[in-house]
């Protein structure tokens, strides 16, 4: 440090390299029973020859097959490389470590008229790579969650978990585990980057990677549990989510599902985006001009009575009387303005509230009533709030210490241990929880019954079935967790079975955010969870298995063909075209947004330019290319056939290929 301040010396670069190194070439994944060739490429950086020996570490998961002319000892001279081969067959499921060791041999045998050298340092190089061995078929994932609470001096509580699988599961594909957390929000915290088990391809879905971080940060701050690691992780997700959301922003200040490729902005998504970005301002930089631009667009779409005009298409058409009607849409936008602390004197907000007051008299739809109840809770209109709550009380569904609300004319509830409610009912019930908690006198007893029901609807990642239900439910559960927070809990939980399984967990204030996990190896089996002590613990069992593609009645027709027939002649197929034909066959006029998911054959990869061409030709709205899956988004599918195609090419040779699967599903009702 000098008189003028700090001084920095110029940087210097230093190049470091190994005498020789090994690189492995293998597929991203294979299906059990498939064979592939593992390639180990050894590169010599020395100016002299070396003689190396490569060794593959044997494992139970991979069967080594005979390789007639394969040699594993060879000379490699200056700046040369050599490839060694092993023929392997995947025999067990899961992540398999492949370990190859290469050693420079000390020998007097000549390599090209010179004695090979042995490096003084770096005479061996060992590389480990992981191969995913999959069972094939269709993955089925189920979760069963419970929030177990015991008061001081209370009796132990017992929860039964029944792991049952169908008869047609693929061999050895069943796996299960159980997790314990001392915090209701813990599961979502662990999976902030993957709250949904589905792709994130549009402006609405991106907000699931954004908004929950805000509610978790608020909760942890107010309960003094926020640490640097969680704060850094959440802020990184907020920053990247903000930048990604701006790609869906249009020049007029609105947002739409696919940005500028859509004809117009979307009122609901613009409100959702503005609300979430405004709430993120305490944690990351949000350009205020982006918010003002969105509010101006919303104002331009306010009608004379004060309610808002629905612009742009909303995808979840299962919510009849939900966000696709003007009153519930206006209530949602008004909630956005209230949570953004817009002055009630501002005509934008005062006119909206006036319109909703007049409309609330005739509203009978339960979803709209719940939205209005929350709106008037935030605006402080307690008289209207109580009127709506009295109506909603008559529609409540109670049982087993749980409380929730159903959609009007909802289909019959599936009687299943693993049943999870539709996203519309989760969102509706979450709004009711927010209404109860944000009122003048929160009813914690009633709120606890709602949380008991909501917690049972969570998926294996802490989210719910779809987008908006995940965001609203996590906002409501974070509010509940904040109000009921206590660091005095001390609980012991035992998981046991009649076959002798026994695993014990301890949860207290020091490890309440720690995810504790144990594998449940015996399936099928009945397990018993016994909790003692005082406090609350969130218990979740997750069951996964694979089945052959089902042939049951579906909401879509789907045909997938290959353009190549050369395999019949025994010729190797290095490239071919995948031809997809689909149509909606359900009871409505058309589907919601639909996703076509195409798994790649082992060793094959999509030709990206042919997938992107589908977007350029307006045949699809968006595509996502992952390691072994191609996802194609369609705004909707009606009863007319839709035909799509793209090319795939062979990247690595895999023999004894097993079938790959393709499926089409409704994004908001994934069971269809």
Automatic annotation (TrEMBL):
Highest taxon listed in the record's lineage: Eukaryota
PROSITE patterns: ALPHA_2_MACROGLOBULIN
UniProt keyword DNA-binding present: no
Alpha-macroglobulin receptor-binding domain location: 591-671
InterPro entries, sorted: A-macroglobulin_rcpt-bd, A-macroglobulin_rcpt-bd_sf, A2M/Complement_sys, A2M_TED, Alpha-macroglob_thiol-ester_cl, Alpha-macroglobulin_TED, Ig-like_fold, Ig_E-set
Pfam families on file: A2M, A2M_recep, TED_complement
One Gene Ontology term of the molecular function aspect: serine-type endopeptidase inhibitor activity
Any single Gene Ontology cellular-component annotation: extracellular space
Keywords tagged on the record: Disulfide bond, Glycoprotein, Protease inhibitor, Serine protease inhibitor, Signal
The Alpha-2-macroglobulin domain, residue ranges: 1-56
Similarity remark: Belongs to the protease inhibitor I39 (alpha-2-macroglobulin) family.
Protein name: Alpha-2-macroglobulin
Protein species of origin: Eleutherodactylus coqui
